[in-house]
Design goal:
Rossmann fold, alpha/beta, single chain, Cms1, globular, 4 strands, CMS1 protein, P-loop_NTPase
């Protein structure tokens, strides 16, 4: 078949499939643009306490009694103002935690952090660590995600070192807590990276495993 095509190029009908491929590619591109266009119309909104409460109720509702569900509810006083989406990450942290220097300097507990930042991926964790430079000062940050870092390595670091901020993914943080490698008794702040979307356009809270 290939030999005949080479001998008789005039009878080769490759041009039509190429046109079809180009049409298909253009159609896909048009679809992607359309999806992006729809997402642009739905502007991100700051997370509010009721959003988290609804997720907790939805997740535990089938397996817990009414009394247990009530015990899971957090009072509004547990929540600090959400980022109104005009702040950089550092400026937002400075606003909600003006006494940060005092907190981290008084922190002496190993296997723990004062502030825990949860986001949906390792790459996003690295991005947030870079963007909090102006806020964190001289305090130590530990990466709490699975990509390129073994859990044993993180367990050793938490046991031997002193860290003030942990930035990572829910899966790895959960694993460390379950193995008693990370204690949350000294944690004063938990920051949820609420609106950021991954390549599949999912927020952290849209991922079923979370």
């Amino acid at each position: 078949f290939f030999f005949l095509m080479c001998l008789q190029p005039t009878e080769c009908f490759l041009s039509q499939p190429e046109e079809e491929q180009e049409t298909a590619v253009k159609a896909k591109r048009r679809k992607k643009k359309k999806i992006s266009h729809i997402l642009q119309k739905s502007a991100p909104k700051p997370g509010v306490p009721v959003d988290l409460q609804n997720l907790l109720t939805q997740h535990f509702g089938e397996n817990r009694s009414v009394i247990e569900i009530e015990e899971l509810k957090l009072s509004d006083s547990c929540f600090l103002p959400a980022n109104d989406l005009t702040h950089s990450f550092s400026s937002y942290l400075k606003e909600i935690c003006p006494k940060w220097a005092k907190f981290w300097r008084n922190h002496t507990d190993k296997k723990s952090v004062v502030m825990l930042v949860l986001c949906s991926s390792a790459l996003r964790s690295l991005e947030l660590i870079k963007s909090m430079t102006a806020f964190k000062g001289d305090c130590r940050v530990i990466k709490l995600f699975a990509k390129h870092i073994k859990i044993k390595e993180q367990m050793n670091m938490l046991e031997k070192g002193m860290f003030h901020i942990g930035v990572g993914t829910p899966g790895r943080v959960k694993a460390l807590v379950e193995q008693d490698a990370l204690c949350l008794n000294s944690t004063k702040y938990i920051i949820l990276d609420w609106n950021w979307r991954d390549q599949k356009l999912r927020r952290m809270m849209d991922i079923p495993e979370v």
